[in-house]
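Quick log. Single chain, no ligands specified.
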Amino acid sequence: MKKLVMDRRASDNEYLHKDFHIALNHAIDYLHGNYGEDAVRDYLSRFTKVYYAPLISDLKTRGLVALKDHFEKIYSIEGGDVDIVLNDDVLIIKVNKCPVMEHFKKNNVKAAELFHETTRTVNEALCDGTPYIAEFLDYNEDPGSNIQRFTRRQKP
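-> predicted structure:
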């Protein structure tokens, strides 16, 4: 009998991790229900500063173009309907339809009350210790539309 061998690498597969967001949603619900809102924000902030340390370093070095490149790549991979514009020291990300919320809806998953913190708190943590600040504006859970704005901090 002939033996067939298939040679595959992880990079051969389409990048998708939408179910990660469902697991994160449950974790946020758990933390919120058992330890409160501050625990959710603290967890997300700590995670961001470790996991995204290279991006934070890039933000300090290259400025907002580092975030623009990052978000363009992520939203492209996940199929987000977004408009991303960088002018001088202002980066605006307008999410028209969030792929995570679409995935939740498709799988009958109710978004945790604080799920939006995965954007707001994460963006704030990305900017912590950099010359930039993040703002989370105009959030609508269904379809997950929002506006994210990153600007240069005002000098004291």
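The longest helix spans residues 18-35.
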